[in-house]
Specification:
The chain is α+β, with helices and mostly antiparallel strands. 30% of the residues lie in helices and 24% in strands. It has one domain: Catalase core domain (Catalase HpII,  Chain A, domain 1). It has ten helices and twelve strands.
Length: 327
């Protein structure tokens, strides 16, 4: 059972980046989450507690005219914004085979570099929604996984957790192995609040939509080379850029913004915010990714965090992990 559940575990700690030691000091839940992940995946010096295996790329983002109508954020002003983008596999195992089920969900983290030297991040992944709604529940799920080996008597701690948290098994069914990092759709599990120049506010969740989505079945994924995703994207980029359309799903007034286990209905409006263009893989990705920390809550004027408690937990846990791997 543990082998089948890792995909949950992996989405919250999708990545890390930036100067945020203030988060890392006193958040007990975040520290316990990282401690438990280190026990589940082992301690690998210099690597993330989760999404340890990844690939760093560079490119730019250019917003659509519709984006400025939703948010006054500088990244949506229509200029070309340089970006650093990291794609990743789940788990804290740096050499996990890309085709393993445990490598799902895959992550996409974007760092926007603004002209004034400031930065803002988006940290999304291929889970359509999250299995739990709070950091405390996420920690409890990790503990339940650890206490539920394959030979554990039934009902296991994990069985009991799932009974009390029915969104968890539904979330587990959503990610799949893509044939390329470039052929996957990535979702923002948390809500953010856009404010435009007129002061109007709109709750949104992000999506990064590729030109095409190609998923492998379990048998096809098992046949792939251990690093097929990591190796394929640089080869593709050598032939030309890869693009995603960054989109915002707009919440209706009745849609919850504080519960990542509850996806908004598919009929909610999607606004194309612009095109994310990936141009090249960085020459020494392994070295580059160790210096990066991506934070969901690192926002700029025109974008605010919502009342989703997971945003703060993710920021704190990423900072704890970043502090440890930087020592």
């Amino acid at each position: 059972m543990i082998k089948k559940i890792f995909p949950f575990v992996l989405a919250t700690l999708t990545l890390m980046s930036a100067p945020v030691a203030a988060f890392a000091d006193d958040d007990t839940v975040a520290t316990e989450i990282v401690d438990t992940m280190n026990k589940l995946f082992g301690v690998h010096p210099g690597f993330r507690a989760n999404h340890a295996k990844g690939l760093v790329t560079e490119g730019h983002f250019k917003a659509s005219p519709d984006a400025a109508g939703l948010s006054k954020a500088a990244i949506f002003n229509g200029s070309s914004i340089p970006v650093t983008v990291r794609f990743s596999d789940s788990t804290g195992v740096p050499n996990i085979p890309d085709g393993k089920a445990n490598a799902n969900p895959h992550g996409l983290s974007i760092k926007y570099h603004l002209p004034d030297g400031s930065e803002t991040d988006m940290v999304i992944n291929s889970l359509h929604f999250f299995p739990v709604a709070s950091g405390a529940d996420f920690h409890d799920m990790l503990q339940a996984i650890a206490a539920s080996p394959d030979n554990a008597p039934k009902p296991t701690k994990l069985d009991q957790f799932f009974e009390a948290h029915p969104a968890a098994p539904k979330a587990l069914a959503t990610p799949h192995t893509p044939d390329s990092f470039a052929d996957e759709i990535y979702y923002g599990i948390n809500a953010f609040i856009f404010t435009n120049k007129a002061g109007q506010k709109q709750a949104v969740r992000y999506q990064a939509v590729p030109e095409k989505i190609v998923h492998l079945d379990a048998a096809e994924a098992a046949k792939q080379a251990p690093d097929f995703l990591i190796d394929e994207l640089p080869k593709r980029l050598a032939k030309g850029p890869v693009t995603f359309h960054l989109k915002a799903q707009l919440a209706a007034p009745t849609d919850p913004t504080n519960d990542a286990t509850k996806p908004w209905p598919d009929d909610r409006k999607l606004v194309d915010l612009g095109v994310l263009t990936i141009e090249k893989a960085v020459p020494d990705s392994l070295s580059a990714q160790k210096a990066l920390l991506f934070l969901p809550g690192q926002v700029i004027d025109g974008i605010d965090v919502s009342d989703d408690p997971l945003i703060g937990t993710r920021d704190s846990a990423y900072a704890v992990s970043f502090s440890r791997r930087s020592q």
